[in-house]
Amino acid sequence: MSSSSIKVRFLIDKERKRVVFVEAGSAFVDVLFSFLTLPLGSIVRLLNKQSGLVSLDNLYESVVQLDAEHLQNDACKEMLLHPWSVAARQCGNLKIKYIYELYPVLFYICRENNCLIQSTIYYAYTSTVPCGSCGNLMDFEVDWPKKILDEGGIFVNDTVDFIMTDDLRVMQSSFAKGLSILKEMQIQDASILEERVIDFGTKEALDLLKRSLISKNVLTEFCFPDACVEASGDSSSSNKDEIVAGEAEPEAENEIILELFLNKRNNEVLCAEVGEDFINFLFSFLTFPLGSALGFLSVNISHLGGCIHNLYSSAKSMSSDCFKSEICRDMLLTPKLSTFYEYKKQILKLKEGLLKEFIVSGKITGKTFIEQNPKSPKGEKDNDGAFVTSSKRFMISDNLRVTPLSLISSMCSEIDIPISELVRKEVSMDKTKSVQLKIAAGEILGIMDMLFSMNFCTMKQ
Ligand SMILES: [Zn+2]
């Protein structure tokens, strides 16, 4: 652990047991910013299905439980549960190996000699894709060579010093900024301050990741886990109506229909019945990198429960000198999908990244590698990049548990009100209603259940 940990200096208000700010170099800031490059499904996986974002955890678990018969193929399940990050190789250079060690960067090729001697070799990121030449599973593991970066940090410039507030606002360090934080926190007397140095390793990095999603006092809670701090914002209630669409313009060629079942007394959505289009729309959020998901919400990300949006806003507003390059900044603000991950009917359009160059040593040197499309390894129709292909209908509970429709279990588990109070509404999500869908991207970060109520509210008008 000692070889891959970072010493971070905390300034503590020892009277009120809170963190004033943290002083850190580029290595620590790179680790924090790398959170933005993680696909949502990988966040749930790294946090052992306990991200604290109940809806997201439920969505992930729904994929775990989903029978293979509903999916295009086995690889699709793996793509949703273990989505590859386009920045994974850069992140292999992070000083704390929270991604690289817990989530090794591998690819898979065919182990058949006849295939290995060809000049072109197929590869995939999951071990469940058949070989394009012989049809056997490509399950021979090969380590991605670590991406060798130029000197000077991964995302941020290693000549810059940073400070970071309790709620993860990152800024270039200066005496004036330090003073203004003291003022903001109404600290008059410097004698209540003390320095604490903490070693950050993998465990601590994952702890911060989790807290950043659900808490507004991330560093304080990290330092004083037993202290009673100000409650984290309740993201699911107060300001629903203030949420408006962000800047990016979503596109939609297709409309998606869902049927909602509501309690007519309070308009609460109990469940929804949907087809494969909506299921793919929902599941594909697991492949969205966090930074892009936050980007879709752009102006109104502050309604989320945690303070990860401050990290995003910092990356957006910090001066160019703080970053290694604008490309590095873009990897945080608009991280792309991995190749072949796009679901073409997804209304929130996100581009796939291109990941071409790599060098392989050993007996497979000097070959051309072609990535196999895991969704259609034999060149068959890939159904608009769908993960789920099923003529079955699905039920979604308001906290995003997705199950194939079973009338009996729905009647028993979803309906806890008198049948006479149940009403049915059909909602169509098309281009004209794209505003609602933009909200959907944010809801997946913990309050996706609002997707339904927002739709209903709009419909009522
Ligand atoms: Zn083969």
From TrEMBL:
Transmembrane region positions? 20-41
Q: Mind telling me which InterPro entries this protein's record contains?
A: DUF674
Does Membrane count among this protein's keywords?
yes
Keyword terms: Membrane, Transmembrane, Transmembrane helix
Query: Does the record's keyword annotation contain Membrane?
Result: yes
Q: Which domain of life is it from?
A: Eukaryota
Q: Which PANTHER family match?
A: OS01G0153900 PROTEIN, OS04G0594700 PROTEIN
Name recorded for this polypeptide? DUF674 family protein
Give the originating organism. Answer: Platanthera guangdongensis
